[in-house]
C-alpha cells in the first residue's frame, strides 16, 4: 500500500455537503486549498430534508433514512476525497528527501540544491540576514562608546522636589522660571520671626524653636 502524504499538516474543511482540505507548508505555514468535492449522499439528504420540512409526512422519514445512508458512506467517500486532494496538493509542494518535509516552492525551497531551505539555506538570503545582524551589533557597540548623557551634571545634588515648581507643583526640566505659572523656581528664603532660623519652603513650623510660620 502506498504511503499517504500530508498526514501531519492539513486541516479538514469538509461538511455534510462535500469534502475540502487545506494543506500547509511544513516550514512557513503557507497553504493550498483543495477543490471542493461534492458528497452526493449528503446533497441528497439535504434536499430531502428541505422537502420534508415543507411537505412533511413520508418525505421527512425518507430524509432521516438518508442521514443513515450518508453516515454509512461517509468513511469511504471521505477517504476517496482525501486521496484525490492529496494527489492534487502534491503538485503545489516540494518534498525534501533529507528531512521529509513538504514545503512551498515559492518561499521555502532551494531549487539549486533540491532541498528545503531548512536543510540547505539560500546563501544570498543568509548573507543579507547576517549583514543586518552584524550592523545591529555594531550600532550597539558604537552607541556604548559615546557619552549619551554628557549634559547631565551628576555632581549637583538632586531630589524629587527639585524637579517640581514650588508654586504650582508642575514638573520642570530646569531653568529659572516655571513654564506653567511663570514664577521663579527658587523659592524665596523664609526665616523664623522668633529665632531668625531659616525655614524650608513647605515648613509650617520652625525646626529650631517650633514657632509657627508667620507667628
Summarize the structure in words.
With 215 residues, this protein is α+β, with helices and mostly antiparallel strands. The chain has helices at 40-55, 58-89, 123-144, and strands at residues 10-12, 18-19, 21-24, 31-33, 37-38, 94-95, 102-103, 109-110, 115-116, 190-191, 198-199. 33% of the residues lie in helices and 12% in strands. Strands 1-3-4 form a three-stranded antiparallel sheet, covered by helices on one side. Strands 2-5 form a two-stranded antiparallel sheet. Strand 3 (21-24) and strand 4 form a beta hairpin. Helix 1 runs antiparallel to helix 2. The longest helix has 32 residues, at 58-89. Mean pLDDT is 79; it is low at 43-57 and 59-73. It holds the Pfam family DZR. This is DZANK-type domain-containing protein. Residues 165-210 form the DZANK-type domain.
Give me some keywords for this one.
215 residues; alpha+beta; 2 domains; 3-stranded antiparallel β-sheet; two-stranded antiparallel ribbon; 11 strands; DZR
Please outline what is shown here.
It holds the Pfam family DZR. The protein is of the alpha+beta class. It is built from 3 helices and 11 strands.
Amino acid at each position: 500500500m502506498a504511503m499517504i502524504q500530508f498526514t501531519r499538516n492539513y486541516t479538514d474543511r469538509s461538511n455534510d455537503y462535500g469534502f475540502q482540505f487545506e494543506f500547509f507548508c511544513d516550514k512557513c505555514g503557507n497553504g493550498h486549498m483543495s477543490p471542493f468535492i461534492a458528497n452526493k449522499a449528503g446533497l441528497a439528504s439535504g434536499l430531502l430534508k428541505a422537502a420534508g420540512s415543507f411537505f412533511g409526512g413520508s418525505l421527512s422519514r425518507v430524509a432521516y433514512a438518508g442521514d443513515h445512508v450518508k453516515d454509512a458512506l461517509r468513511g469511504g467517500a471521505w477517504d476517496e476525497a482525501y486521496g484525490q486532494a492529496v494527489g492534487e496538493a502534491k503538485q503545489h509542494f516540494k518534498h525534501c528527501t533529507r528531512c521529509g518535509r513538504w514545503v512551498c516552492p515559492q518561499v521555502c525551497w532551494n531549487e539549486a540544491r533540491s532541498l528545503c531551505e531548512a536543510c540547505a539555506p539560500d546563501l544570498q538570503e543568509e548573507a543579507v540576514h547576517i549583514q543586518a545582524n552584524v550592523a545591529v551589533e555594531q550600532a550597539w557597540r558604537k552607541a556604548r562608546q559615546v557619552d549619551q548623557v554628557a549634559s547631565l551634571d551628576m555632581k549637583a545634588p538632586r531630589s524629587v522636589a527639585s524637579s517640581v515648581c514650588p508654586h504650582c507643583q508642575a514638573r520642570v526640566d530646569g531653568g529659572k522660571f516655571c513654564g506653567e505659572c511663570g514664577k521663579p523656581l527658587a523659592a524665596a528664603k523664609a526665616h523664623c520671626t522668633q529665632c531668625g532660623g531659616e525655614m524650608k519652603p513647605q515648613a509650617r513650623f520652625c525646626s529650631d524653636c517650633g514657632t509657627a510660620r508667620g507667628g
